[in-house]
Amino acid sequence: MSDRDESQSDALEAAHRCGFVALIGAPNAGKSTLLNRLVGAKVSIVTHKVQTTRSLVRGIAVRGPAQIVFVDTPGIFRPKRRLDTAMVRSAWAGATDADAVVMIADARKGLDEEAEAILARLRDIPHRRFLALNKIDVMRRDKLLEVTAAFNAALPFERTFMISALTGDGVDDLMAALAEVMPAGPWLYPEDQISDFPLRQLAAEITREKLYLRLHQELPYESHVETETWTEHRDGSVRIEQTIYVARESQRAIVLGKNGRTIKEIGAASREELAAILEVPVHLSLFVKVRESWADDPERYREMGLDFPRD
Ligand SMILES: Nc1nc2c(ncn2[C@@H]2O[C@H](COP(=O)(O)OP(=O)(O)OP(=O)(O)O)[C@@H](O)[C@H]2O)c(=O)[nH]1
């Protein structure tokens, strides 16, 4: 490297920015879809079923000199079970640690009760606040100004963006604004890293997504997927063994399906996506086990990166 190149790269380094952005929103507002678009790869799992995001997932985006680390939070809702309480706590912990917060809301719903509950909590968070009104692709534009005004009257936002996480409309403006407010500092991750979500967990999330997509009406949230083994072979392929835990014997039968047909389909869909993401051939074996009341087992919480709520 010549002296000139070196001083240029030093200057670039000095201009670096890096920070954390928390995405906060009601279940189904579109957080995961937005995160995937911002990061440009599938790091958080999107399904039609509400409340599928159980763990904090970080996606990392680079925009000019800024590296933005996104914290995808579980949807904020009224906690009923122990697991719900843990998720809500973890969501707000993520927001408190961040440099900026983006509240994402389904614009069609306007300022409903759920949105108001989130605004009430956001009021106490001292960060830069941005509002992203999502799903404008399925909404009348003249209504949007009204919704923007209602939100900002309840809690002033630094800026409001009208976006469609699905089509990408407006997302670039949001990203540029976030890049601008990231604090000066060195990047925390190598440039090509999109997520520090461990691959095993990502693989479990992908199977869980396929499980929900295939059985969404029939399967309660108590089901859970764990990656048990991960073996990389010399020919470049990966063998992955996963267990799907369900709460009852009757659910096990549903997941297996007649002659094991359902689980075969789930496995095939998951394997295909894993192979596409990992860019190597994948051999996937799925097992189904009954484990009652895992939702009260502290160990499961630790695995998901959540604190176990004692109260
Ligand atoms: N039409 C439209 N649908 C969207 C848009 N963004 C998200 N969706 C859909 O809304 C649903 C929920 O999206 P997610 O990204 O899973 O929402 P989430 O907020 O992460 O949900 P939880 O994981 O439950 O917290 C999915 O069916 C998405 O395809 C959008 O801009 N336009």
UniProtKB/TrEMBL annotation:
Residues 134-137 are annotated as: G4. SUPFAM superfamilies: P-loop containing nucleoside triphosphate hydrolases (SSF52540), Prokaryotic type KH domain (KH-domain type II) (SSF54814). One of its GO terms (cellular component) is cytosol. Residues 215-292 form the KH type-2 domain. GTP binds at residues 25-32, 72-76, 134-137. One of its GO terms (biological process) is ribosomal small subunit assembly. It is found in: Cytoplasm; Cell membrane. GO terms for molecular function: GTP binding; GTPase activity; ribosomal small subunit binding; small ribosomal subunit rRNA binding. Residues 51-55 are annotated as: G2. Residues 17-184 form the Era-type G domain. Residues 163-165 are annotated as: G5. Residues 25-32 are annotated as: G1. Keywords: Cell inner membrane, Cell membrane, Cytoplasm, GTP-binding, Membrane, Nucleotide-binding, Ribosome biogenesis, RNA-binding, rRNA-binding. It is a peripheral membrane protein. Signal peptide: none annotated. Its main location: cytoplasm. Residues 72-75 are annotated as: G3. An essential GTPase that binds both GDP and GTP, with rapid nucleotide exchange. Plays a role in 16S rRNA processing and 30S ribosomal subunit biogenesis and possibly also in cell cycle regulation and energy metabolism. Monomer. Belongs to the TRAFAC class TrmE-Era-EngA-EngB-Septin-like GTPase superfamily. Era GTPase family. HAMAP family: GTPase_Era. This is GTPase Era. It comes from Tepidamorphus gemmatus. The gene is era.
